Amino acid sequence: MESISRFLTDDHHRCDDLYARSETAAAESDWDAAGDAFARFRAALLRHFRMEEETLFPAFEAASGQAFGPTAVMRLEHEQMRNLLNGMARALVDRDRQAYLGIAETLLVLMQQHNFKEERVLYPMSDGVLGGDTEALLERMQGVETV
């Protein structure tokens, strides 16, 4: 059986790959490719947030009793990243390479720090407290649709 850590870490890597494609296209001012790649990246990242916020976090909080612990920090960082995604979308519409790449760099740093905390702290804790519910949680997370 797959672990929560492995499933969500693999999803981080998928999002990272999509991010890199969008950044590369924008750096080359290939706006059609950048727009397409960004749309796929944004959809994947927002789906990842939903998997966590709608499934993992509530289950973790219920099992651990930590409603104001690591999940609260992760939710705040998700909101910060959503705001950066909105800025990137505006820069794409404006075809503003400098703005897009600047915001993208800020997002990359935040994603790296965020993913490190999840992969090193939250996911292993989740595997520990949710072990018996892992299969059902993974099924629910896999069923989350892209908005």
Automatic annotation (TrEMBL):
<dbReference type="InterPro" id="IPR012312">
    <property type="entry name" value="Hemerythrin-like"/>
</dbReference>
<protein>
    <submittedName>
        <fullName>Hemerythrin</fullName>
    </submittedName>
</protein>
<dbReference type="Pfam" id="PF01814">
    <property type="entry name" value="Hemerythrin"/>
</dbReference>
<dbReference type="GO" id="GO:0005886">
    <property type="term" value="C:plasma membrane"/>
</dbReference>
<feature type="domain" description="Hemerythrin-like">
    <location>
        <begin position="4"/>
        <end position="125"/>
    </location>
</feature>
